[in-house]
Amino acid sequence: MPTTHLGRSGLTVSRICLGTMNFGPRTSEEDSHSIMDRAIDDGINFFDTANVYGGRGATEEIVGRWFAKGGGRRERVVLAKKVYNSMGDRPNERGLSALHIRRACEDSLRRLQTDHIDLYQMHHVERSTPWEEIWQAMELLVAQGKVVYVGSSNFAGWHLARAQEIASSRHFLGLVSEQSLYNLADRTVELEVLPACEHYGLGVIPWSPLAGGLLGGVLAGTGEGRRAGEGVQARLSEHRAAVESYEQLCAELGTPPGEVALAWLLAQPAVTAPIVGPRTIEQLEAAERAVGVVLEAGVLERLDQIWPGPGGPAPEAYAW
């Protein structure tokens, strides 16, 4: 499994990030542990989770019990997790207040059965909390050794710029990564987010690389899994012509659509590692195969024609 640095940091991570959202809700604990074992054996060292996955901490507990098995599992993993969403019904159990950041971190460490989080990501921007407060809380966690690096998720380009400029004024490293919705069918981040990430040296971690199943061979498997869901079927109705052209191109290449979609992301200069959320070992293996898929320039051009992005970075994408 190839590796790269996470943004401008010295942290080395695999080109595929193992997402754990399905662990618990769609994948049993036993199978989840098997998938994680297989991932680290295959060289995937980058794992992503969140305190809300599985229902307020359930997925973290599954990962924590896997760590507790020992055998160097925790030491072999770069653990990324997220904070922001509601973890209870009382005040201060959501958001990015210093109080919630601190409590959420402590709770996650307990559930994960570890003493530190390698990449602590803000799951969403918090407009009602000043950056000075957020950075003060993160700086304290770093000083205490409970957090090593800080990242963001679902931020706009302006939010990234604001966060980094204030972090710089505090002589703090600030963000090293941004986790964004990014795939062939969802390319809005190319306008502002990717240019901001490249400017500030942030690694990009795309989530939903298969657009919820739309890019995973939806025509051939209409009645199966997530691809049969109402949301994917609605998007298929909207983008049927593009999907038909896309799957035809994949057939010409002799490469499954899901692997082509991941290979396209891996070919984007700003991308560090797409997040894949396998429910089975077979899905993990398919994601790993995508790392070895090389898309020639002509194929990349055809993919741009089928799935046109916003036209490049702003403002040139919409102005002279």
Q: In brief, what are we looking at here?
A:
With 320 residues, this protein is α/β, with parallel strands linked by helices. It has helices at residues 29-41, 58-67, 98-112, 131-143, 157-169, 193-200, 230-253, 257-266, 281-290, 297-306, and strands at residues 3-5, 12-14, 17-19, 46-48, 78-83, 117-122, 147-153, 175-181, 203-207, 275-276.
Name the structural class.
alpha/beta
Taken as a percent bin, the fraction of beta residues is: 5-15%
- By DSSP, the count of extended strands is 10
Number of structural units classed as domains? 1
**For the record, what CATH class applies?**
Alpha Beta
Distance between the termini: 42 Å
The CATH homologous superfamily corresponds to NADP-dependent oxidoreductase domain
Rg to the nearest angstrom? 19 Å
Assembly type of the chains comes to: single chain
- Helicity level, as a percent range? 25-40%
Please name the CATH topology: TIM Barrel
Most strands sheet: 8 strands, parallel
Q: What's the order of the H and E elements?
A: EEEHEHEHEHEHEHEHHEHH
* Count of runs of 4 or more consecutive helical residues: 10
Mean pLDDT: 95
Assign the CATH architecture: Alpha-Beta Barrel
Shape: globular
Model regions low in confidence, pLDDT < 50 over at least 5 residues: none
